[in-house]
């Protein structure tokens, strides 16, 4: 069974990376820009009016997402105190419908504080630019430009990385470069249980998907031409709202 190298999120001048299986180049591969179509759930209207493709029996139809921004907005790193000890719920509106995420500010306060800030406007019309389908099973998002090199202009260190290297289905984690302090705006969602290397510190887990996994399954089922690149059935983030989860 092939091992894989883990995903990573780019700093401002570097491409964000995703794991590569053994037998490919030792350096993590550059990320490719996303295409122009997205997907939406056909029976809810969440994906917009103009369906462009369907998957037989899936219940989903694809629509055309907005044009991605030309550049990422530079911001300042927020204070982690705003998220420390709290749990949040993020509703990610995509052109496939809604993904609902639970964010763990107790275990990853800096990461969650950053996610809260970037959710306000940074990820508007942001394509998910990379899907991996061999060895590791993740969808990588968070670069508004869809090129894999966009960043909010700041970086921070690793939080809550599993010593085991195990990333279960539904895990929400940060992507980064080889620099452990290069966490920024890019993140990945695991759609099938995945083991990632722990060298370099691993990858910060900061939450999980609590609703919407069928959307990711649908995108993953369509694959990618290379096995590691833009999804054949693209997905774009339209907006994100974040609220604190009360006990």
UniProtKB/TrEMBL annotation:
The protein's Enzyme Commission number: 5.2.1.8
Family: Belongs to the cyclophilin-type PPIase family.
Catalytic activities: [protein]-peptidylproline (omega=180) = [protein]-peptidylproline (omega=0)
Domain PPIase cyclophilin-type: 97-242
Signal peptide limits: none
Enzyme class, first EC level, given as a word: isomerase
PROSITE patterns the UniProt entry points to: CSA_PPIASE_2
Residue ranges, annotated region (Disordered): 1-20, 41-79
InterPro entries named among the record's database cross-references: Cyclophilin-like_dom_sf, Cyclophilin-type_PPIase_dom, Cyclophilin_A-like
Keyword flag Isomerase: yes
Protein's recorded name: Peptidyl-prolyl cis-trans isomerase
Keyword vocabulary terms for this entry: Isomerase, Rotamase
Molecular function (Gene Ontology), one example: peptidyl-prolyl cis-trans isomerase activity
Biological role stated in the UniProt entry: PPIases accelerate the folding of proteins. It catalyzes the cis-trans isomerization of proline imidic peptide bonds in oligopeptides.
Compositionally skewed regions (Low complexity) per UniProt: 49-64
Pfam families the record matches: Pro_isomerase
Keyword field contains Disulfide bond: no
Native species: Metallococcus carri
